[in-house]
Amino acid sequence: MTSEVSALEAVAHAVRRSQRIAVCSHVDPDGDAVGSVLALAHALERAGHAVDRVLASGERAPVTYAFLEGAALFVRASALDRRPDLIFALDAPNPGRLGEAAALLENATLVVIDHHPDNARYGTVNLVDAEAPSTSALIWEVLKHLAVEPDHAMLDCIFCGLMTDTGRFSYANATPRAFLLAAELAQAGARTSWVYSNVYERRSHAALKLQARTMDRLTFVKGGAVAYSWITDDDLHETGALPEETEDLIDSVRVVDGPDVVALFKCSPGRVKGSLRAKGGADVGAVARALGGGGHRAAAGFTLTGTLSDALAAVLPLLPARS
Ligand code: 5GP
Ligand code: MN
What we know:
This protein is α/β, with parallel strands linked by helices. The chain is built from eleven helices and twelve strands.
């Protein structure tokens, strides 16, 4: 706790000394990445600072999160006309995860705010708490410490990060702390059901067709201990689904009864991005790290070169089996 308080003070100190701030997160941003960046950027602007919301990959915010206030203001790192003197890197455990935004790091103060257990503490200031249910939960602490009066935009964004990273309050990180924060945000005026329906009840027909393909390919291996599925770039083209609409496909896979671990492989020519989820006590974060990726105990990912069969050959031996 003491170190967290001193990190919060160091964050406030860095903010006070800065002229121009950039806030960024990881490549292929999810709800916690987008929600955390937008909440913090909005709060810093409210406190009178000049702030850029910077993408680590892609050209705009994912369509799923376009409803959040400020989502249209994201820019690519290469489009910044002035270099920031202070950079916030959110939900990104190492500089590699910052993608294009890593180019901004030179000669700037870097504040890292994250809840990944494998965070490399690569900032000038590091506010890292692996017990936090989402990075947005830590942004809420920062807002309180900066004494920024939260408005709807900030509350909705923080709730969005919390809701999505806890799998709608269903994963192991949906701890009492997560529920208490949800209550606090709701009490303060977060539009919880509005955020929920925007994220989970506005799927495109194309994304549902992709989901159907994913379910159709569900494959059980290792005596039933592992279930996996896959999608390819051709599936995206044929259904018309966007890459960002694949973010929670793995959640459709994990509902199946039986396996200890589920996996989803997103295959592009020469490259496979894997997502792993543990349904029991398995540590898929360790598996992902062994493959050059990372993540949490129950939710982790990695990228490998090669084909789907290469990825299966690399991953399956590391996963639990049943006789
Ligand atoms: P997802 O499977 O949804 O892409 O990611 C699940 C978790 O693993 C997230 O916390 C995400 O940040 C992390 N993760 C996914 N891919 C990578 C990767 O290549 N490297 C690292 N360090 N973490 C990853
Ligand atoms: Mn997160």
